[in-house]
Amino acid sequence: MKTDEAVGQDAAQLADKAWSRIGRQKRAGILVPLFSVFSQKSAGIGDIEDIRPLADWCSACGNSILQLLPMNEVGPLFCPYDSLSSFALDPMYIRLEGVDGFDTDEARASVAKLKEAFPAGKRNVDYRIKAEKLKVLRGIFDALPESKKNGFREYADANSYWLEDFALFCYLKKAHNGYAWWQWDKEYRDRDPVALKNIAIEHANDLDFFKWLQWQLFKQFSEARKYALKKGILLKGDLPILVSRDSADVWAHPSYFNLDFVAGAPPDMYCAKGQRWGTPTYKWDAIFSDAGTYLAEKLAYAQNFYDILRIDHVVGLFRIWAIPFNDPEENKGLNGAYDPGDEQQWESHGKRILSFMLAHTSMLLCAEDLGTIPPVCTKTLLEFKIPGNDVQRWIKDWKVKHDFLAPGEYRPLAVSMLSTHDTTNWSAWWENEAGTIDEGLFDRLCAARGIDAAAMKKALFDPNLSAHGRLRWLKDIDSVDRLVSILGQGRDQLWQFIDLYENSYMEKEKLWKQMAMKGAMKEKATRSLVSEVMRANLQTASVFSINLITDILYLFGAISGDPYDYRLNTPGTVGPANWSLVMPLSIEEMQDEKYTSILRKMIKASGR
Question: Average pLDDT by consecutive 10-residue portion of the chain (608 residues)?
């Protein structure tokens, strides 16, 4: 067996090949959830063909990376990180006019009717569009002559590892009125070979439809990638570390998953109870006992579409927060524990998986390493030459100065950004969260210490500047001594309160000073302030600077109103506001020179 040092050397050499392929120069990019944009040709939701004008837009702005959220088929919550398959793409992203067989008057009339019923550009996606698109696509498929399905047969054979199970899963789920696979008839739930073979024979045309959909998605997406590359734009994809409990993956390979647990995140200063995601954790030994084929196949398929791949929640490869499946959901992540439980195993556990991934793809791997990260994870990413994430609001000296790091102090091997898809946009952070602590966490800490939370809120926080479950410190709480005096207990008992205070008190003023902004600190995120933080982010030491489209549109002055309303997702919550936000400008409007020139000048000045 190789030593950890030998594994690291091999992994670094593999990473070097990926870096050589894309180049080691500093780059700028934009993160665009495809459902959040629309063009003049979109039908109710952004689609794969919209990647082409997005690539044009990136190029005009001076960016060379276009990052997408996961494109995998999703379930009824439409969460891209809770997918029905870690292979299959979602047919709601198909451009209808681009599919095989879209050359009949009936198909054209159906699409025209669809666009009238689901006009693009509404504030939130109406996800009923998916079912309606599928009706149109089924009509096109049924009218197709066999001669136009030849390529589809070759595609299905080449991807049989996952596609056969996925097509069966889709058919059986529909046949069982959408119920989860563990609620199906026993022979299908338990994958009786004879029962599944009979389905494959008796309903071959229905299964072919699901396979054909993936063929159309494959063709459109791979062609869109080729277009982007011609424009000098690298596509960065996103591989969710986990998959839905009710997924084709879990149904087809139940031995790979620990169904007695669900994944989540432990409590922290932003989520008082932690998070419960509902997705099962992996049995990695079972996966690798099968030569790791499941993971290798996932990477191989993603490589058809992406040049760079983001590994979601990379720390979960080292150790994941596992919550008992039967624990009440209102507890969220409170009663979880790390798996593996032995901290001494974390490094070898993560290295085993990451080195396997590097050996089975030519894509450049990046890692989402946010949250509570053990040193072995940070060390391994550096050793394996995998960039992590540096989010401006969290890049601080947390222990000594309790202040933000300067742009030059960011990690060179990192992707710097102002926001993520799971946070508020930067403007909303500035106006509602900077200089605050989580109210739920404060209540819980007070309860644990026998402190009157209601009385302490009046004594410590400014009610006029506290909103959205965040508490802003009063300015006259100007020292730890004063905080301790008001709370009325010893420093040893109040260390958590002290830590929260030191890393959030006067946070806005500290950042204002670091950026050398003129005049008194402003509570509102003015356009000039957003410009300064964007400029600073582009000037970081990080090899990549990739910013969320929402922050870009604030830079352009194209979004108005309460910035808190422009949030893609609130972790740990379920609701129609999550994963449905649509930008107020079409892609064509974003391409206007009055917008593109703003970012282009900044990027050029930064040397990216």
Answer: 68 93 96 97 96 98 98 95 96 96 89 93 95 96 86 94 98 97 98 98 97 98 98 95 96 98 85 87 97 97 98 96 95 95 96 96 96 94 97 95 96 98 97 95 93 97 95 97 97 96 96 92 95 97 98 96 94 89 97 97 97
Strands 257-265 and 320-324: antiparallel
- Inter-CA distances, 148 with 104, 158, 217, 362, Å: 14, 18, 16, 32
Instruction: Show the domains of the chain with their CATH numbers.
Output: 4-93+231-428+533-606 (3.20.20.80), 436-505 (no CATH)
Q: How far apart (Å, rounded) are the C-alpha atoms in residues 487 and 494?
A: 8
- CA pair distance 45, 37, nearest whole angstrom: 7
Coil, strand or helix at 415: strand
Q: Which amino acid is at 290?
A: D
| CA 598 to mean position of chain CA atoms | 27
Going by the DSSP 8-state scheme, the letter that residue 474 receives in this structure is: P
The strand pairing partners of 308, in sequence order, are 236, 364
HSE-up (13 A, CA, CB side) for residue 553: 23
Spacing of C-alpha 499 from chain mean position: 29
Q: Give the Cα separation of 285 and 290 in Å (integer).
A: 9
Name residues whose C-beta falls within 8 Å of residue 570's C-beta, 6 or more positions apart in sequence.
577, 578
- Residue 105, amino acid: D
Question: Do residues 596 and 57 lie in contact, with contact meaning Cβ atoms separated by under 8 Å?
Answer: yes
Enter the pTM of the model: 0.96
DSSP 209: H
Q: What amino acid occupies position 415?
A: V
Residue type, 202: E
Rounded alpha-carbon distances, angstroms, from residue 477 to 400, 446, 461, 462, 514: 19, 18, 9, 10, 22
Helix crossing, 439-449 with 453-460: angle to 10°?
130
